[in-house]
Amino acid sequence: MTTQHNYNFNVHHIRADFPILQERLSNGKQLIWLDNGATTQKPRHVIDRITHFYEHENSNVHRGAHELAARSTDAYEKARQTVADFLGAPSKDNIVFVRGTTEGINLVAQSYVKPLLNEDDEIILTILEHHANIVPWQLIAQETGAVIKVAPVDESGQIILSEYERLFNSRTKFASFTHVSNALGTITPVYEMVQIAHRHGVRTLIDGAQSVAHTPLNVSALDTDFFVFSGHKIFAPTGIGAVYAKKDVMEQAKPYQGGGNMIKDVTFEHTVYNDPPVKFEAGTGNIADAVGLGAALDYVSQIGLPNISAYEHELLDYATHELSRIEGLRLIGTAKEKASALSFVLDGVSVEAVGKHLSNHGIAVRAGHHCAQPILRHYGLEATVRPSLAFYNTVSEIDALVNAIWELAR
């Protein structure tokens, strides 16, 4: 199949920016990286920026009176501004650096939502959620006596908005939902979900871990109260991510952790906290990787998320069509609006065996429950095989995937 593009997007030029894509595995096979839902590879631009930081800027931030402290602080706060610009946030002061989506959700749960809760109050989630958007809410529900309500999906794996809205009542205190399902690739109608919640006076969090690298977004236009994502899902290092929060909810939230950097003044009797976002950044942050995150977002912005989204949509359509032709293969999650991920099972072959067979061909996919057991069990499954795409993947890599699966199916 020959793909025709009506925009300036050269996948082979992009691939040259990612050194690891040239990797040969121990069996001599060329690496085909289709595990982007788990983590993405890093472009030379990001690798070089982190190296430059450690060679020329390394220092703690906000504290030192020397030049390297000024360089480091400038680089760190510039990265915060880059995140704000990328998300469409009003100010860099709306951005808190965290280790990733999981820590971000825990921060929101503990700092903002938990103080709102009384016994029998309710938190609304969806059946599509990653465990990271379930367990933090369970923890605070167990502590406060609150109750979790779960919005269902239709057979395609899309949220049933009427059922979602029906969950809201006078006891509802918060709603938290994924933007893109990591297990199915479903793009949820987040704008409508935020609007529904706000009509009921309920604040929202969007888990953007699987959307941030694939779908253009603007948190101000979405009007969500919180948005969280992980850098390693968008070609940045592991161990860095961000929480976007509206100014008023930031001011209401209580500190999640205590320690250096988040304080203005301490006595043994009383502490005065810094203003947000530093109020939520106790201790020394992951400075170098925050700078790397800024570099990754700059790189993606230069290519353009609309271009990336259009290319990946073409690739996803092609992969869906080709996989659907394989006898005995069943795609799980067939929503009309999807991004990046394909989930499937193969008759008579275990998920583990499919993953191992693909690995023997140099093809990296995820085989398991994807930390999203509730949605897989909705389909009567404990695991699936999940190839997940990024803008450096190609039609020829999809062909290699399909051919390897045909071998098993035959």
Short précis:
The chain has 410 residues and is of the alpha/beta class.
Which structural class is indicated by helix and strand composition? alpha/beta
Which spans have pLDDT < 50 for at least 5 consecutive residues?
1-7
| Rough outline | globular
Q: What summary fits the major beta sheet?
A: 7 strands, mixed
Number of helices: 14
Q: What is the count of β-strands?
A: 15
- Give the integer mean of the pLDDT values: 96
From the alpha-carbon coordinates, what is the Rg to the nearest angstrom? Answer: 22 Å
Q: Multimeric state of these chains?
A: single chain
Helix proportion of residues, in percent?
25-40%
> Which range does the strand content fall in?
5-15%
The arrangement of helices and strands along the chain is HEHHEHEHEHEHEHEEHEEHHEEHEEHEH
**N→C terminal distance:** 23 Å
Order of strands side by side in the largest beta sheet? 2-8-7-6-5-3-4
Explain the overall architecture.
The chain has 410 residues and is of the alpha/beta class. It is built from 14 helices and 15 strands. The strands form five sheets. It has a seven-stranded mixed β-sheet with strand order 2-8-7-6-5-3-4, sandwiched between helices. Strands 1-13 form a two-stranded parallel sheet. A two-stranded antiparallel ribbon has the order 9-10. Helix 7 links the parallel strand 5 (172-178) and strand 6. Helix 2 (44-56) runs antiparallel to helix 10 and helix 3 crosses helix 10. The longest helix is centred in the first third of the chain and has 21 residues, at 67-87. 47% of the residues are buried. The model is unreliable at 1-7 (pLDDT under 50).
